[in-house]
Backbone:
């Protein structure tokens, strides 16, 4: 049971962490005051100390680290969510076929746990993207850049 509690606490922690915000704007920054990081929705504010070569090098480093971190966390979410989802679905199927007095109580609970696991699995790709961008943002801000995200919708 403690193993199940630790898995649930990891999932809850990741959920809470994913609720934090990223700096976003609803109007696209102009090219004069912001430097666009290619293939990302990220822009770096240009100030008097801005050096484009260093910004490109730093952004590549930060986004590579962020993508690696995001992929790692996504694999954890997919593995644990898939295991919980399929495992509890099999438990529910077993309880439903075996019958018994308590099966009417435990089958809905097992199906609910299965649904939660499958939702965690399904949300792993978005969590990967969020983790990659938030890690890259933190890395760039540690290097002294101000980062803004603009998402085209």
Residues:
């Amino acid at each position: 049971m403690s193993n199940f509690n630790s898995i649930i606490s990891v999932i809850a922690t990741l959920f809470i962490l994913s609720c934090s915000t990223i700096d976003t704007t609803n109007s696209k920054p102009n090219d004069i005051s912001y430097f666009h990081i290619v293939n990302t929705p990220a822009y770096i504010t240009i100030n008097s100390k801005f050096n484009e070569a260093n910004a490109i090098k730093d952004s590549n480093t930060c986004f590579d680290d962020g993508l690696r971190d995001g992929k790692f966390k996504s694999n954890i979410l997919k593995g644990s969510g898939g295991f919980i989802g399929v495992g509890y679905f099999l438990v529910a199927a077993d309880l439903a076929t075996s019958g018994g007095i308590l099966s009417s109580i435990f089958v809905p609970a097992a199906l609910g746990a299965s649904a939660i696991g499958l939702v965690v699995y399904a949300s792993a790709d978005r969590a990967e993207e969020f983790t990659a961008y938030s890690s890259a943002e933190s890395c760039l801000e540690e290097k002294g850049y101000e980062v803004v995200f603009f998402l085209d919708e």
Q: What stands out?
A: Residues 2-149 form one domain. The helical segments are 2-18, 52-98, 103-122, 124-142. The CA atoms of residues 95 and 105 lie 10 Å apart. The mean pLDDT is 80.
